Amino acid sequence: MNKIEVIGLGAGDINQLPLGIYKKLIGTENRIFIRTMSHPVVQALQEEGVLFESFDKEYENEMQFSTVYESIVGRLVEAAKEKQVIYAVPGHPMLAEKTVQLLLKRKDVSVYIAGGQSYLDALFTALRIDPIDGFQFVDGTFFERSQLDYRQPIVFCQVYDRFIASEVKLALLEDLPPDYQVTIVEAAGTESEKLTTLPLEELDRSLEVSNLVSVYVPPAPDSMLNHTFARLKEIIATLRSPEGCPWDRKQTHESLREYAIEEVYELIDAIDEQDDEGIVEELGDVLLQVMLHSQIGEDDGYFTIYDVIKAISDKMIHRHPHVFADTTADTVDQVYKNWDLLKQEEKGEQRKLILDGVPKSLSSLARAYKLQKKAAKVGFDWTDVNDIWAKLNEEIQEVNEAIQVENRDEIEKELGDILFVLANLSRYYKINPEVALNRTNQKFIYRFSYMEQQLREQGEAIDQATLEEMDYYWEQAKRRE
């Protein structure tokens, strides 16, 4: 198996090239492969007789950097079949050099890494920052916004051109203001070194095309990070700390139960009203409940928010094998079937009976709906909706009979049966009875309030109005909907 020797050309001019690397380069008679000729040391080496064969044309022929790097590696491996190859790269071979990483993964060629000075030393010197405090080094051509940590200095390398600079800028603008100051570092460690500090929004307008450009983003203050999860967790932890809020410190899982219920219903209201701003606010209040419960768990030493996140992540992956594994589910019904089987597998012996697991804290109507839904999954269900309507009529007859004999206990039972059948009808028509009843409640509130307001404008209190007057405004409210 032939060998590819990868040599780093350092970050600056020939004066910064290690002596051993310099001797190897000028002592090589064969042509040296080089990723790009755009490097300060190349001209000086050419003047001393070093021959290079670059891959610059690969950048012109391919549209994506990933395909450029794959193409370069392919050519290097083919060349290594004929003889030993020397491959020169900017900086240090093990720093931000994708082609080297791809070569190291190959099984059909032996790769030897020679030295080379990293440009990070020159970069830290130019920026006057100490990496001991932490920093994030990001490839400008391959990164995800979610990986960026604005609490540390961020250095984007390989910002070759304005297109890459624009991609970096657009990602940063999702989290930072347009006037946030960033620094363009050009040719760090060379005589041509240049630092330009400018507003983020001007990043791609002021960038010179060069492969020696990096972009430095200084740490952001906490006030700019209120939209991040880490900042939210920190805020909740502060509220629960000895220096925090007395109310937050006093809360327990039990004391917060009523708020969880309230916040979910307020979210439903915002959804029903199609109020996007309200949905954002109410989702935040629901998330607050999750964060508070998680912080209580952490304070008590039982669990943290990361345990909560891991649990739901594991569950979603496990219950969606048609997405994360090789199971097939082309229809919603297949998804439901897989979901139920996997859910039963997860619970195992925890739930021995079909109706186990229906929360007792649900409202009675929601619980009836859930109980019937579970029973239906094992075949205990009406086969014809007309039979459900007939059952409803039967229950209405029975409640009338109980009313005739003035048996209060029986009236209560039979009215319960009517509500139970109505929940079943809702399920048949794929309508959640809680949502349906909530919409009716909101409709009633609107009509009644409209009626009351109209009477007030007429100088009449609602408790003094006649039923005919109230009916008039009630019907008017209906027409306005």
Features of this protein?
single chain, 481 residues, alpha/beta, five-stranded parallel beta sheet, five-stranded mixed beta sheet, 20 helices, 10 strands, 52% helix
Description of the structure:
The chain is α/β, with parallel strands linked by helices and 481 residues long. The chain contains 20 helices and 10 strands. The protein has helices at 19-26, 42-47, 56-61, 65-80, 98-104, 120-127, 162-173, 203-206, 229-240, 246-250, 257-272, 276-299, 305-319, 321-324, 332-347, 364-376, 385-404, 408-428, 433-457, 467-480, and strands at residues 3-8, 32-34, 52-54, 85-89, 110-113, 136-139, 154-157, 181-186, 194-199, 213-217. α2 links the parallel β2 (32-34) and β3 (52-54). α4 packs across α5 (98-104). It is elongated. The relative contact order is 0.05. The model has no long low-confidence stretch (mean pLDDT 89).
Widest sheet, order of strands: 3-2-4-1-5
Rg for CA atoms: 35 Å
* Overall morphology: elongated
| Biggest sheet overview | 5 strands, parallel
Summarize it:
Helices cover 52% and strands 10% of the residues. It contains 20 helices and ten strands. Helix 11 (257-272) runs antiparallel to helix 12, helix 17 packs antiparallel against helix 18 and helix 19 packs across helix 20 (467-480).
Topology:
Elements: E1 3-8, H1 19-26, E2 32-34, H2 42-47, E3 52-54, H3 56-61, H4 65-80, E4 85-89, H5 98-104, E5 110-113, H6 120-127, E6 136-139, E7 154-157, H7 162-173, E8 181-186, E9 194-199, H8 203-206, E10 213-217, H9 229-240, H10 246-250, H11 257-272, H12 276-299, H13 305-319, H14 321-324, H15 332-347, H16 364-376, H17 385-404, H18 408-428, H19 433-457, H20 467-480
Helix pairs in contact: 4-5, 9-12, 11-12, 16-18, 17-18, 19-20
